[in-house]
């Protein structure tokens, strides 16, 4: 009878132990050369701490964690700058470790543009290095006295060189472009201004602007915008034809290439 009671007690203790060691905290981020700092509360019994095992990308972290606070050194498993990682902190039930610096999980804008060119079919190509995370690249062009967004390119992240491209519509003369990313704190990080001096036949309108009815045509592909007297852009796009059939009668500004003209809608 005593043996039976002892056996039952052991089974019960094992069951309770398994119940205690049942929870996990999962942290996912992008390595930026910074470690994770964890607050690790002590259990009520006063002999053990909340977290009892840490895995970094499925590799056991063997440093000391049996304390009220500990550091997870992410280069322990050979992480490279910009590499994604997952940290699993196994902890007892009814307690939760706390990450002191959660901002290190989120990617910052750390890219560098090491090369760029204006390639075939007016594709702006740029090569980056040292991207700490998968942040979107915003491509802007300076035209008509202001910076205009030309496109958004998803960043791939990682330490390796990455090459991206965005369709643009350069005009005859000096063309200015810039690229930026926005981090998790809503901060913009701009590249240096990219300059291309283009020598090509200027695009001109081939429609009489004094009596426009349905459309305006150009001598080639260009980016354009139709603006009213209040500065509102009513029609924007790219191509060699502008559809203005839905506009009311009156005078408008037509922006194209790097200039603007006035036309009358009949």
Description of the structure:
With 266 residues, this protein is mostly beta strands. The chain folds into three domains: 2-105, no CATH class; 112-198, Immunoglobulin-like, CATH 2.60.40.10; 215-265, no CATH class. Helices cover 7% and strands 48% of the residues. The chain has one helix spanning 2-20, and strands at residues 23-30, 36-39, 51-56, 59-60, 69-72, 84-91, 98-99, 112-118, 123-129, 136-143, 146-154, 162-167, 173-182, 188-190, 194-198, 215-227, 233-243, 250-256, 259-265. It is elongated, with a radius of gyration of 30 Å.
Low-confidence stretches: 1-21
User: Which structural class matches the secondary elements?
Assistant: mainly beta
Question: What is the string of helix and strand elements?
Answer: HEEEEEEEEEEEEEEEEEEE
Tell me about the biggest sheet? 5 strands, antiparallel
Question: How confident overall, as mean pLDDT?
Answer: 88
Short note summarizing the structure:
Helices cover about 5% and strands about 50% of the residues. The chain is built from one helix and 19 strands. Strands 10, 11, 13, 14 and 15 form a five-stranded antiparallel β-sheet that branches. A four-stranded antiparallel β-sheet has the order 1-6-3-4, with no helix packed on it. Strands 17-16-18-19 form a four-stranded antiparallel β-sheet, with no helix packed on it.
């Amino acid at each position: 009878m005593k043996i039976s009671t002892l056996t039952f007690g052991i089974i019960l203790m094992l069951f309770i132990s398994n119940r205690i060691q049942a929870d996990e905290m999962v942290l996912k981020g992008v390595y930026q050369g910074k470690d994770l700092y964890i607050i690790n509360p002590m259990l009520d019994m006063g002999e053990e701490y909340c977290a009892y095992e840490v895995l970094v990308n499925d590799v056991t972290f063997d440093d000391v964690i049996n304390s009220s606070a500990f550091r997870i050194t992410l280069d322990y498993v050979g992480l490279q700058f910009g590499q994604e990682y997952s940290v699993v902190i196994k902890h007892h039930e009814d307690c939760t470790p706390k990450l002191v610096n959660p901002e290190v999980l989120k990617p910052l804008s750390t890219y560098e543009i090491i090369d760029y060119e204006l390639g075939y079919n007016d594709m702006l190509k740029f090569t980056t290095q040292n991207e700490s995370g998968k942040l979107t690249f915003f491509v802007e062009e300076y035209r008509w006295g202001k910076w205009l967004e030309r496109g958004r390119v998803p960043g791939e992240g990682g330490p390796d060189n990455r090459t991206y491209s965005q369709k643009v519509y350069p005009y005859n003369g000096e063309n200015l472009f810039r690229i930026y990313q926005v981090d998790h704190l809503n901060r913009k990080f701009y590249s240096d201004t990219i300059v291309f001096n283009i020598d090509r036949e200027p695009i001109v309108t081939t429609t009489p602007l004094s009596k426009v009815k349905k459309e305006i045509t150009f001598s080639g592909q260009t980016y354009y915008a139709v603006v009213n007297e209040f500065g509102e852009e009513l029609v924007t796009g790219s191509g060699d034809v502008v559809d203005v059939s839905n506009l009311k009668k009156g005078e408008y500004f037509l922006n194209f290439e790097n200039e603007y003209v006035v036309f009358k809608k009949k």
